[in-house]
Amino acid sequence: MTKQAFPNNLLPENINALAAYSSAKSQKLSGSTWLNANESPYSKNIELSLSDLNRYPDPQPEPVIDAYAQYAQLNKEQVLMTRGADEGIELLVRTYCKSGEDSIALFLPTYGMYKVTADSHNVAINGLTQDLLLQGSNEQIVAAVGNSKLVFICNPNNPTGSLTELSKISAIAKALENKAIVVVDEAYIEFCPEQTASSLLQDFENIVVLRTLSKAFALAGLRTGFMLANATLLAPIRKVIAPYPVSRVVALIAQQALQSDAITQMRRQVTILNRAKATLTQWLKNCSAVSKVLDGQGNFVTVQLTRKEDIDKAMQSGLIMRPFTLYAQDNWLRISIGNEQELEQVKIWLDALDAQQ
């Protein structure tokens, strides 16, 4: 019997036309030096003792919620644990946006999962620009946001590393009170903690802060994030979230990562990575094959090379970084901040490019 093709007419139109998000790990690459996913170069040794995996876990494990609330200097009612910040994005769109009616506002270029999530829920995209966010007046930004239900501000922004001042976020949230929710994605905030918007929650009911343990906490493989907001905003999301979103194993590891000594270690590692980033940035600025270096925050540097083929050759040699098309140009590259040995491979590559000039 001949197997029949899956009938695509069963798919909603928005899903049929959906382009999946291409993550750094979705590409089947082979290499020896991996600087493409903004991962921490520091691995953790975890010890676990589990004897009750036959029981369902707590939906929101209290020790983890308490620990993260203390770390973020918030009340535990303002903290919701999610499967990475990506689940937080999906929950916000699913809870607050009407399919086929509402839109979300983005400031491009930015993190691609905002668009993928909206597209999958048949929510329109109001595509604005990073230039508007950073250089435009508050009045111009609010006018451009229009009737969008959610306004996503990635801060620091991925992939550019740019920072939006807290005063601007505050002014936007004030102008959009009772009209829209301002979502501040702080995946990289540990690299510039003084810029966190969590302090604005005491004054605003329409601000949400998304966090993750994937970057500075060096737990990308754990897929753990947090949504920070006031209780009234989180209440409907608690109705929508899966009944057991956090496994017992994940909760125990996250609890260890949020102990005071572990947080101290994380901050020490951030200091080291920020210093390494400054060194890498100087190497890039001194390289004749690099035409532009974007100054910004986060554990990565985004650059434009004179020739795209130089990026291709690096990837083929096993130095795996993240090529990007930005501003309609395909010769951009994002380099994660790795350890000393990994960044030395980048230096060797840059020196070879200089020698070719």
What does this protein look like?
By secondary structure, this protein is α/β, with parallel strands linked by helices. It is 37% helix and 18% strand. The chain is built from 12 helices and 13 strands. It has helices at residues 13-16, 62-72, 84-96, 113-120, 130-135, 138-145, 166-175, 231-240, 248-257, 260-286, 308-316, 340-356; strands spanning 33-34, 79-82, 103-108, 124-129, 150-154, 181-185, 207-212, 225-228, 290-294, 300-305, 319-320, 322-326, 329-336. The chain has a 7-stranded mixed sheet, with helices on both faces. The protein has a 4-stranded antiparallel sheet with strand order 9-10-13-12, with helices on one face. Strands 1-11 form a two-stranded parallel sheet. Helix 3 (84-96) crosses helix 4, helix 6 (138-145) packs across helix 7 (166-175) and helix 10 (260-286) packs parallel to helix 12 (340-356). The longest helix is centred in the last third of the chain and has 27 residues, at 260-286. It is globular.
Strand order of the largest sheet: 2-8-7-6-5-3-4
β-strand number: 13
> What shape does the CA trace take?
globular
Number of helices: 12
Give the helix/strand layout.
Layout: H1 13-16, E1 33-34, H2 62-72, E2 79-82, H3 84-96, E3 103-108, H4 113-120, E4 124-129, H5 130-135, H6 138-145, E5 150-154, H7 166-175, E6 181-185, E7 207-212, E8 225-228, H8 231-240, H9 248-257, H10 260-286, E9 290-294, E10 300-305, H11 308-316, E11 319-320, E12 322-326, E13 329-336, H12 340-356
Parallel strand pairs: 1-11, 3-4, 3-5, 5-6, 6-7
Antiparallel strand pairs: 2-8, 7-8, 9-10, 10-13, 12-13
